Amino acid sequence: MEAKGSSSYDYKLILATTAVLGIISVICVAAMFYFKAAAIHELPAAAQWAYMNTMNGIMAPFIIALILLLGICVPKRLLPERWLNRFTVALLAAALVTFLAVGGHPALLLILFASLALQLVVLGMALAGSASLNFESKNYWVRLGSSLVHLGLILFVLDLYFHNYHTLHLVLFWVTTGAVVLGMLFCFYAEQVAGLVRRYWPARG
Amino acid sequence: MENLISAVETYSQGGALLMPLLLLCALLLTVTGLGNLLAPRPFMPRWSGRLLQLTAVLMLLGFLGMIWFHWQIAQHAVLELPEQLAAMLNQQLEAMNRGATYGIPLYDPQSPPRYLIPPWIEYQRYYFWFFCFALMALLVHRRLDNQRFRGSLYLLLAAQLVVLYVWADPFREPLPRFFAEITPWFTAPSAWEQLGMFMQLYPRLEFYYTASYMWFHPPLLFISYACITIFFAVSLLMLIRRELEVERVGYDYAKFGYFLLTLGMLLGYPWALKAWGPNWWWDPKVSSSIMLWAIFSTYLHTRIYANKKGMWYFSAALGLLCFVAMIFTFVASYIFPGEHSL
């Protein structure tokens, strides 16, 4: 547990993330009751797809917000704070222009690919043990785990776009699962992982 | 069928002995739980610990009984057809598999399909979930000597045992849905009748009862539910007093529960694609699972700042909300329609 000033940028990010996750929860509950009231399960396949697309449309802005907030955590580790805000605004502006020009899906894809590219850079740096990343924790495994979890979340949302490409969809899904599972293990059990690595691979530990 | 009936009778008789004992444990746990919550000093600490151990041992015996029962089912519930029907059956299966993303294995007369089912279906899922909680309560009991926390764990376990006894006894009428499905197979007057039934039973056997995901998706979620229940007890205590040791135990279980919940949910995804096809996204169960995961995520985020003014209580409130969301998610299968409804 940390004790920080309320003006802390990270603290505000946490509160914003909490708010977005809260809104996502409320939308999910509303969707459940709507599903039951409208008896979606009894409708023909086309109507079910329409419902799913509507739900995706309602959820998309909040997924974008969540990805952006996580995305802020990504460049936060690469850039100083003054550049961070500029980067976020630039990414949001680019997404907005894309949305107005060609629609919501490409805008979300732009954000996802930008976040994915950044996250891969961060993951590479975390893997290399770079000291220039601004992580909360100095622990190598926590840094690596955090990078993997964020990468997994971005990949999962990206993977939903490829549900029509059966093989790619499943391959990407298992990559996502691997990243999230490993990331959580590294994050939550960093000391135990470090102990295991020290035991079997002393040079790395 | 005779062997199956005999196994059901033995299993039910064992349960008829076990369940009243567990109810008695629940009553005693209630007494000791209230005692520890209300008394100024630890209430019969050694005796309470022994009672918790006894409850866990009894539940373990019940679970071993379930494993034995499922082994009997695997031995005797076999979809066996005369060899001369195999070729015709396989033609039908090949026709079914044509164009399907996920095909069903062809019928092999040398190794006919059998019901090797994990011990967490129907009412057994409650038993498994509560058994996991009993084991965790025992671990926490040994790890932390905290009177109020122990008391709350006793009460939660007692409540779960009462739920088992009154509403979800897995021994009283074992696997009613499963037996309702397969009994006609054994009472069918001819092999031709069985052939028709086979085409109904076999896909469900492959995609549900003996699906490989059945061994991972449900148990991971039930273990995570047990973790959330521990963490619920911690959250209640956090609202009453600031005890860092208790909070740390709660956080450890929250981390473990979150990891299992995430993994369990993810492993449900390819299973859903296989069993239901692509039209299930935003199904009520999926929505409720995302809701639970999102609330759990908020707890883990806010917990980082639990030392800040007000955040301790906000974090605790999220812990309680997480428990409510878990119950809601579990119950959603019963009250909301959709692919996952029971």
TrEMBL record, chain A:
Top-level division of the source organism's lineage: Bacteria
Membrane-spanning intervals of the chain: 12-35, 55-74, 83-102, 108-128, 140-162, 168-190
Keywords of the record: Membrane, Transmembrane, Transmembrane helix
Entry protein name: DUF998 domain-containing protein
TrEMBL record, chain B:
Domain of life per record: Bacteria
A Pfam family matched in the record: Cytochrom_C_asm
Subcellular location(s) per record: Membrane
TM region positions: 17-39, 51-71, 126-144, 151-168, 220-240, 252-272, 312-336
Main location: membrane
Entry's Gene Ontology molecular function annotations: heme binding
Keywords: Cytochrome c-type biogenesis, Membrane, Transmembrane, Transmembrane helix
One GO location term (cellular component): plasma membrane
Keyword Nucleotide-binding in annotation: no
Membrane topology summary: Multi-pass membrane protein
Any single biological process term in GO: cytochrome complex assembly
Location of the Cytochrome c assembly protein domain: 123-329
PANTHER family attached to this UniProt entry: CYTOCHROME B_B6 PROTEIN-RELATED (PTHR30071:SF1), HEME EXPORTER PROTEIN C (PTHR30071)
Name of the protein: Cytochrome c assembly protein
Organism: Desulfurivibrio alkaliphilus (strain DSM 19089 / UNIQEM U267 / AHT2)
